Amino acid sequence: MFDLAFLLAPAFATFFLGIVLRKSSVLDDHGADVLFKVVYHLTLPALLLSVLPFVVISSAMSFLPLISALLILLTFAAAMLAAKALGMPKKSSALLVSGSIIMNLGFVMPFIQSFYGDDGLARLFVFDIPNGISAYTIASSLASRCGDATENPPGRKLITSSPLLALIAALVMNVFALRPTPIAAAVLHSIGGLTIPLILLGLGASFSIAKINPLHLAAAVALRMFLGLALGVWLASLFHLEGLDRAIVVLSASAPAGFSSLAFASREKTDREFTATLVASSMIAAMILIPVLLTIL
Questions:
Q1: Number of Cβ within a 10 Å radius of residue 10
Q2: How far apart are CA 147 and CA 257, in angstroms?
Q3: Contact partners, residue 108, CB within 8 Å, separation at least 6
Q4: Model confidence, pTM
Q5: Is 58 helix (H, G, I), strand (E, B) or coil?
């Protein structure tokens, strides 16, 4: 238990530091957005290029994107049924669905790095491919349909996504045994090392809870995390995954609601308070659930 607390303490401390910086007006919504943009366009691509070319990609890793896609589709169907059963209005139901299918893998990244190192991160990056695609297709389209903004869905952003391009480059380098030079590797490692602290600071600074329908909130959190956990365990067993591969699937499937759903809600002028509260509430639940899973897996 002491080892677990020792490993998790930096992640929790950095997250709560982000909250303190928000409360003290050092960071605001704009500041948090800047942090996420730096991660998205600079530090995360550097982290991908500093990790993936050097890891051994096992045959079991090829199942990770398929499992991620199945998880998203099953959760999507369950969220649509839940929204209909609850009689939610169009805008709220769209946010329920998008918040349920987008996994906040940035939140679980620090825990996976602490416990499983670069091998765990490599699997997480591969698992995240369908998650990123669904965010810029399904979730973005849902927000666009029910929103008041006139901007077109940012589907084209997918093909110019800095992390996706870096992921493709890193996988190609791995396949052809291409490695960065020692100097380039050191620079990439230094820049990539900023990813997790910046993500945690940004998540803390974005933490916000408003008064919304508690039944709708509970349904969204249950769909994203607890249904996700059940589906992750089932799919890992279905594909006979063991060890690290199984742990990554279960932990990722149990991740809180993705922060990009909040960005879509802001862009399309939908119910931002519902999405912000869903993201914050699911992060609170994840702070309890993820450490428990790490002790079991």
A1: 14
A2: 20
A3: 124, 251, 252, 254, 255, 286, 290
A4: 0.83
A5: coil
Residue 98, by phi and psi: left (phi above 0), alpha (psi -120 to 50) or beta? alpha
pLDDT at 112 over 70: yes
CA proximity to 285, closest of 212, 232, 213, 209: 209
Pair 202, 36: CB distance under 8 Å: yes
DSSP state of 258: -
Structural domains of the chain in order of their starting residue, each with its CATH number? 21-206+214-296 (1.20.1530)
Q: Which of 244, 254, 261, 256 has its CA nearest to residue 297?
A: 244
Tell me the angle at which helices 64-86 and 228-238 cross, rounded to the nearest 10 degrees.
140
Handedness of CA 149, 152, 155, 159 (dihedral sign): negative
CA dihedral 264, 257, 228, 65 (to 10 degrees): 60
- Give SS3 for 234: helix
Residues with Cβ within 8 Å of residue 67, at least 6 apart in sequence: 127, 235, 236, 239, 241, 249
Task: For residues 288 and 285, give the distance between their C-alpha atoms in angstroms, rounded to a whole number.
Answer: 5
pLDDT digits (tens, 9 = 90+) for 221-239: 999 999 999 999 999 999 9
pLDDT in tens, 31-70: 888 888 898 889 989 988 998 888 877 777 889 999 999 9
**What length does the chain have?**
297
For residue 103, give the 3-state DSSP assignment.
strand
User: What Rg, from alpha-carbon coordinates, does the chain have?
Assistant: 18
Q: Are 208 and 277 in contact (CB under 8 A)?
A: yes
